[in-house]
Specification:
- With 201 residues, this protein is an alpha+beta fold.
- It has one domain.
- The protein is built from 4 helices and 10 strands.
- It has a 7-stranded antiparallel β-sheet with strand order 4-5-6-10-9-8-7.
- The protein is globular.
- The termini are far apart.
- The N terminus is likely disordered.
Length: 201
């Protein structure tokens, strides 16, 4: 059983292991970890409703439904984020979590978002003993104009699991049309998820 030590990374990631953390399961977002069952946080009915809403989000991937996405919005128990999203395998009756992402809006405020991203990144580097870091600025595949982008910092464990800390900025008309949010994303993911994202059509 993990021992919660209450080591807080600027309120955005909690470490549940002593000293350095080298296992992706040692990180929590709003008390939730990789390997938990999503059924601990959502009903089966709600999970399936979320699957239906997000079913077309990843049609640009070769296996768009290998993992399915679910969201929890504005939960009264959340202390840091406004939204949490998850990826699970749809045929897994336990809905084991492979990915957790905390989302906090910074609407039209990329500079402030990047400042917070970099603060979190500095703290992460102090608690992971061995990692590979890379920076990636990518355009969103959901915006054909090419004006929407992500600025990412990615920390890879020796297992291939990752922590991704990023800020995204949508082209404004697209954001308003779709009622999308933009800002800070802090994601903890298994290698299976990053491999899935990389396998595009």
């Amino acid at each position: 059983m993990k021992k919660l030590l209450g080591i807080l990374v600027l309120g955005f990631l909690v470490i549940t292991a002593p000293s350095y953390a080298d296992d992706i399961r040692d990180f929590q977002i709003e008390g939730m970890s990789i390997g938990d069952s999503l059924l601990d946080y959502m009903s089966t009915k709600k999970i399936k409703e979320e699957f239906e809403k997000t079913k077309n989000h990843y049609n640009f991937l070769k296996e768009p439904h290998k993992f399915r996405e679910a969201y929890i919005f504005e939960d009264a128990n959340f202390k840091t984020y406004s939204t949490i999203s998850f990826y699970v395998k749809p045929d897994d009756k336990n809905y084991t979590i492979f990915f957790i992402r905390g989302i906090e809006p910074y609407i039209n405020n990329m500079d402030k978002c990047l400042q917070k991203r970099n603060e979190i990144a500095n703290e992460v580097e102090n608690i992971i003993s061995k990692f590979k870091k890379r920076e990636s600025n990518i355009k969103s595949t959901l915006d054909k104009s090419g004006k929407s982008y992500y600025k990412q910092l990615i920390y890879s464990f020796k297992t291939g699991d990752e922590i991704n800390i990023s800020c995204n900025d949508w082209e404004e008309k697209l954001r308003i049309k779709n009622n999308w949010t933009e800002g800070l994303n802090v994601a903890v993911m298994k290698k299976d998820i990053s491999d899935w994202f990389d396998n595009r059509k």
